[in-house]
Predict the structure.
Amino acid sequence: MSALETRTRILDAALAALPAEGFEGLSIGRLAARTRLSKSGLFAHFGGQGALQIAVIDAAAARFDGAVTRPVLAEADPLERLRVLASLWLTWVTTDGQGRPCPLMQAAMSAPGLAEEAGVHACAVRARFHPFVARLARRAAQAGRLRADTDPQRFAFRFEALGLAAGLHALSQDPAAVRACAQAEYAALLREFAA
């Protein structure tokens, strides 16, 4: 097995453990046991706890981008991009094995307990979503698909708040029911801002 394949296997195991153990339970020792690798072998791949945490955050971000943000950009219509984003993000935060619970939110919430550089990185990675949504809203307004007076920052805040609430509720309530309720709220938000 190549070094890249081994690293991928380690990161997959770490991401699989996050829903139950969180970042608090992510250690080189536990991951070594889970992957049946030596601690020194794991250390050789990452160089320490902080680097491991950053690598897991980046692996989670890559999965999120592949499942949620990149597919949105294939849509030509700016309003449809927002609809698709809402649907994909809701699927992400309400589906076990995808983003339930969202590993990027877990990382940001765990930031104070992570290695300092990993905590800063976790918050920076999580913070990328708001400007992404704001850009989509700005483009939709410029294209005449949202009202011309749409404040992209305010729109993004409300858009993000709905998804975060859905992710939180999906942890303790029926995910399908949460997803249906949140989809209705996203439809209402888009109607409110529609041109």
The longest helix spans residues 49-72. The CA atoms of residues 127 and 144 lie 27 Å apart. The two ends are 55 Å apart (CA to CA).
